[in-house]
Amino acid sequence: MNLKLLDYFTNNLIYDELFLPDFMGVKLDCNYMQNKSSLIIAGSIFTDYENVLNQLREAI
Question: Which residue ranges make up each domain of the chain?
Fold first, then answer.
């Protein structure tokens, strides 16, 4: 992945610049294989992101 994507995330939640209207991106700090990482989720503003994150947690 191009790390310049993270440059757009001056906040953990963005709506413009990268996304069409009614879409957004969310950046979360996390650990992946015991390394600090950033998780980026992008999609509709109407998506249930809490449910998406819970499904990811269960899959691990």
Answer: 3-59
